[in-house]
């Protein structure tokens, strides 16, 4: 009897396992991270959006008229920065040109003043005196030409004003030559001189554009 019970229990257990294996359904569940655990990807800043922001910033700083006025110059940013603080109301290209020439003239006066200080300074090298003297004369002539240029622009005579401004380049060359012919002596204030002739270059470019426009 005991043997029969053991056999019966074994048979029932085996049958139960068999039934479970037949009826079992394999799981198809996909495990996902909870929302708080899911990795987040920060979107990269769009290059187009950054460019648009930059344009918008410049548009707030400089009017469209100023940007257009300076667009034909070689140093457009310097052009806009120079004239923007002094222009208000309706944009006048001749007034803007006058401001640009005035900025050039102020820089020329500054350089001329610094040259005079060097000439008056006993510590200045003797071999530099002659070159500095020539440059002082040239910078005085530059300022005079720029003053005449401003007066001509006020008379709406841009053609002759351009002629006056172009002479500034000749005065610069004469100053450069004076130092070239003085071995061991270097031109002082190179950064200021570079800025002066960037400003002057802008003036000439604007004048060319105005003259060309009126010829059409």
Automatic annotation (TrEMBL):
Instruction: Report the residue ranges that make up the Pectinesterase inhibitor domain in this protein.
Output: 61-206
Keywords in alphabetical order, please.
Disulfide bond, Signal
A GO molecular function term, named singly, is: enzyme inhibitor activity
InterPro entries, sorted: Invertase/methylesterase_inhib, PCW_Enzyme_Inhibitor, Pectinesterase_inhib_dom
Instruction: State the similarity comment.
Output: Belongs to the PMEI family.
Identify the PANTHER family for this entry: PECTINESTERASE INHIBITOR DOMAIN-CONTAINING PROTEIN (PTHR36710:SF21), PECTINESTERASE INHIBITOR-LIKE (PTHR36710)
* Protein name per Swiss-Prot or TrEMBL: Pectinesterase inhibitor domain-containing protein
């Amino acid at each position: 009897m005991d043997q029969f019970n053991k056999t019966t229990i074994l048979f029932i257990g085996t049958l139960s396992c068999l039934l479970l294996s037949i009826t079992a359904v394999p799981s198809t569940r996909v495990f996902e991270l909870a929302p708080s655990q899911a990795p987040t990807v920060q979107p990269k800043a769009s290059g187009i959006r950054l460019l648009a922001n930059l344009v918008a910033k410049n548009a707030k700083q400089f009017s469209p008229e100023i940007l257009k006025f300076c667009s034909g110059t070689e140093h457009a940013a310097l052009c806009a920065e120079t004239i923007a603080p002094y222009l208000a109301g309706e944009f006048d290209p001749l007034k803007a040109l006058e401001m640009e020439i005035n900025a050039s003239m102020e820089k020329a006066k500054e350089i001329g003043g610094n040259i005079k200080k060097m000439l008056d300074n006993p510590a200045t090298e003797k071999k530099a005196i002659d070159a500095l003297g020539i440059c002082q004369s040239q910078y005085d002539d530059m300022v005079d030409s720029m003053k005449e240029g401003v007066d001509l622009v006020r008379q709406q005579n841009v053609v002759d004003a351009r002629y006056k401004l172009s002479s500034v380049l000749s005065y610069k060359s004469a100053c450069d030559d004076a130092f070239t012919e003085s071995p061991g002596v270097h031109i002082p204030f190179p950064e200021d001189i570079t800025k002066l002739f960037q400003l002057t270059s802008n003036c000439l470019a604007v004048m060319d554009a105005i003259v060309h426009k009126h010829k059409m």
